[in-house]
Design brief:
The protein has about 210 residues and is α/β, with parallel strands linked by helices. It is built from 9 helices and 5 strands; from the N terminus they run βαβααβααβαααβα. The chain has one domain: 3-Layer(aba) Sandwich (Rossmann fold), CATH 3.40.50.300. The structure holds adenosine-5'-diphosphate and thymidine-5'-diphosphate. The site of adenosine-5'-diphosphate has 14 residues, from helix 1 and helix 9.
Length: about 210
């Protein structure tokens, strides 16, 4: 089973993903957690380039670098783990590229990016995608300590218009694939969100 977490920066994805791992392990499951961009030596180095605020790059280059990091991660780790029956938890996957580069950067039509991502991942698609939905004000408030200290990464420095387009694109993606996405209200407290996710995972583990 492959599970992905999606949402804008500060929505609470990593918090939820990282709570899910030990719970699944407690059920006797073997779990692999990966974050994107990253998860391999090469992909982590690409991550450093992508998030470095001192580097500027063309949006198409940016999309290719996110995709390159993902291709490497899928082919060197995710495919094998999935084949061996592990539960793979992805803290972001290809929907991030469609939402951020397609919606946020307005680089290309979401349909084109989705088709391209099928090639990038060799057809790997998550079984469940948890979209943690928060509004811009909530996310900004949660990340305020980072941004306030001028420590925001290259992506976090994109303006509010960018992030609103990312939110809107995620909403469209979720509406178009209701069987894969579960949309969660990220303004709820951490524990109740986690409980909702666990119930959903249990339902899909046994199906
Ligand atoms: P993301 O991975 O989506 O960027 P994080 O999980 O890192 O988000 O969370 C960003 C910040 O918001 C962290 O300080 C985290 O503790 C806090 N946070 C996460 N989920 C919630 C929640 N449901 N309610 C309030 N604060 C939260
Ligand atoms: P990260 O700190 O991992 O995200 P978060 O703050 O949500 O925990 O930073 C990854 C950044 O890269 C984040 O701003 C989203 C962005 N991103 C894209 O623009 N496209 C992509 O394909 C991926 C995977 C991430």
């Amino acid at each position: 089973m492959i599970i992905s977490f999606e949402g804008i920066d500060g929505s609470g994805k990593s918090t939820q993903a990282q709570h899910l791992v030990p719970w699944l392990e407690g059920l006797g499951k073997s779990v692999m957690y990966v974050r994107e961009p990253g998860g391999t030596d090469l992909s982590e180095r690409i991550r450093d380039l992508l998030l470095d605020p001192s580097i500027s790059m063309d949006p198409f280059t940016e999309m290719l670098l996110f995709s390159a990091a993902r291709s490497e991660l899928v082919r060197s780790r995710i495919q094998a783990a999935h084949r061996d029956g592990h539960i793979v938890i992805c803290d972001r996957f290809f929907d991030s590229t469609v939402a951020y580069q397609g919606g946020g950067r307005q680089l290309a039509a979401p349909e084109w990016l989705q088709q391209f991502q099928r090639a990038v991942t060799g057809g790997v698609v998550p079984d469940r995608t948890y979209l943690i939905r928060v509004d811009l004000a909530t996310a900004t408030q949660r990340l305020a300590h980072r941004l306030g200290q001028g420590a925001g990464d290259r992506m976090e420095r994109a303006g509010p218009g960018f992030f609103q387009r990312v939110i809107d694109t995620y909403d469209h993606l979720a509406a178009a694939e209701p069987a894969r996405f579960l949309v969660l209200d990220g303004s709820r407290d951490i524990d109740s969100l986690q409980e909702h996710i666990r119930q959903d995972v249990l339902a899909h583990l046994s199906s």
